[in-house]
Amino acid sequence: MADLLKFSVPGKAEYVGTVRMAISCLANSAGFDVEAIEDIKVAVSEACSNAVCHGTGGELCSYEVFCELGEDRFIVSVIDQSGGFDVNEYEEPAPDSLKEGGLGIFIIRALMDEVDIFTELGIGTRIKMVKYAR
Amino acid sequence: MIRSNWRSGKNKLIGRLFEKQPRGYSFREDISMTLEIQRSFNEQEERWEIRPEGEVDISNAPLLRSALDEAFLEKQGDILLRFDGLSYMDSTGLGVIIGAYGRMKDNGFTLTLHEPRENITKLLRITGLDRLLCPELCES
């Protein structure tokens, strides 16, 4: 059976680093190689930054990070209740007209093996990311 | 030199998180990542050389933004970012660099990135920023 870990994190920017450290320890103990650990670290940080950025309640909100350590995979879900975002307004970043924001989701998709994003405007966002052990 | 609230890395986290107070230990709220930024103007090359050291994430990316902006306001010239001391950066840092690159370009100056580590190079390649910011990577 997979081991489950849950973190509840205040929606403040300064705690993203704490989550990143915890996640990289977990990925390391699960036996991932350095590159995969780095991928997981960045992807989870991006998801947490997303939860912090889009937090309409600002610093009053907290978000949850669920980690599932399976035999052959590491699943991390970042769930916030800070209002979600409009998927229709999300644009894939274009290399020739890069903007300051909007790279996070793109990077998560590039680094993880499976990514599911559920977002509901007015409610919140859940980003589920899977990395397979090789 | 610009310095964020943490000087010497993760291994001091616990010591800094729980600082001794007269009535025991209290939790320190201020735990953003380490980032030190050194900068100097190279008169010969007429460019800024800026070297961030540590980690850039959502908690301290504004620090990198102000370092770049302040340097440029102080003296106009190209900017060379030395990344050999940067161990971690995500899209928040990339966003700051994209913004600065755009402003530099509008003013007729360049911003280039030197010696990023492998993990950061990977992000630059994924986002296509390597072609824009690190010609040296594309040549190799």
Structure description:
- With 134 residues, chain A is of the alpha+beta class.
- Chain A has one domain (3-132): Histidine kinase-like ATPase, C-terminal domain (Heat Shock Protein 90, 2-Layer Sandwich), CATH 3.30.565.10.
- In chain A, 31% of the residues lie in helices and 30% in strands.
- Chain A has 3 helices and 5 strands; from the N terminus they run E-H-H-E-E-H-E-E.
- Chain A has helices at 16-29, 34-53, 104-111, and strands at 3-10, 62-69, 73-80, 114-120, 124-132.
- In chain A, strands 1-2-3-5-4 form a 5-stranded antiparallel sheet, with helices on one face.
- In chain A, strand 4 (114-120) and strand 5 form a beta hairpin.
- The radius of gyration of chain A is 14 Å and the shape is globular.
- The model of chain A has no long low-confidence stretch (mean pLDDT 88).
- Chain B is 39% helix and 29% strand.
- Chain B is built from 6 helices and 8 strands.
- With 140 residues, chain B is α/β, with parallel strands linked by helices.
- In chain B, 36% of the residues are buried.
- Chain B has a single domain (35-139), classed as Transcription Regulator spoIIAA.
- In chain B, strands 1, 4, 5, 6, 7 and 8 form a 6-stranded mixed sheet that branches. Chain B has a two-stranded antiparallel ribbon with strand order 2-3.
- Chain B is globular, with a radius of gyration of 17 Å.
- Classes of the chains: A alpha+beta (134), B alpha/beta (140).
- At the A-B interface, helix 1, helix 2 and helix 3 of A face helix 3, helix 4 and helix 5 of B.
